[in-house]
Design goal:
Number of strands: 10
Number of helices: 1
Number of domains: 1
Strand order of the largest sheet: 6-7-8-9-4-3-10
CATH topology: Metal Binding Protein, Guanine Nucleotide Exchange Factor, Chain A
CATH class: Mainly Beta
Distance between the termini: 33 Å
Length: 146
């Protein structure tokens, strides 16, 4: 099981399964949403994900405008995005940066969720020199670029 939260910690969540897949995403949506060259994202089945915050103490999550592909859920206080629901599959996408950390600042049980490939690498901003496979889209459903 993994726990996590938004930046301020007000909106928390848990996942009770291994990710369906875990990748570094270089798509332009992630770049723009996170202000980063790429993000660590892991997808979980909807049955494994739940918000765990005390809904009596916080206003409902503000749902960002969905483009039909995903819906971003934002904390009403810090406005960070602790979770994204994928419309087509109803799976949940979580950023590795939002997972709980130990006292040394490392993500707890990182080895069980660490990325195994790069996706949408053709829209990358920076080249990444690692041994992970690099895909044009999703693994196994697009061209491998390396």
């Amino acid at each position: 099981m993994h726990n996590g939260s938004c930046r301020c910690g007000l909106v928390s969540f848990k996942v009770e399964d291994k990710p369906l897949f875990s990748v570094y995403c270089h798509c332009t949506k992630c770049q723009r949403a996170d202000g980063a060259a790429f993000v660590s994202t892991m997808h979980f089945p909807s049955s494994a994900f739940s918000f765990t915050y005390d809904s009596a103490k916080v206003e409902p999550l503000v749902e960002a405008v969905s483009d039909g592909a995903m819906t971003l859920y934002r904390c009403p206080t810090c406005r960070s995005c602790p979770a994204i629901q994928i419309t087509r599959t109803t799976n949940w996408a979580l950023r590795g940066t939002n997972l709980a950390r130990d006292d040394a600042g490392k993500i707890i049980d990182w080895d069980s969720v660490k990325p195994t490939s790069h996706i949408f690498y053709n829209t990358r901003i920076v080249d990444v020199a690692d041994d992970l496979p690099k895909w044009e889209g999703f693994p196994g459903r697009s061209n491998r670029l390396d």
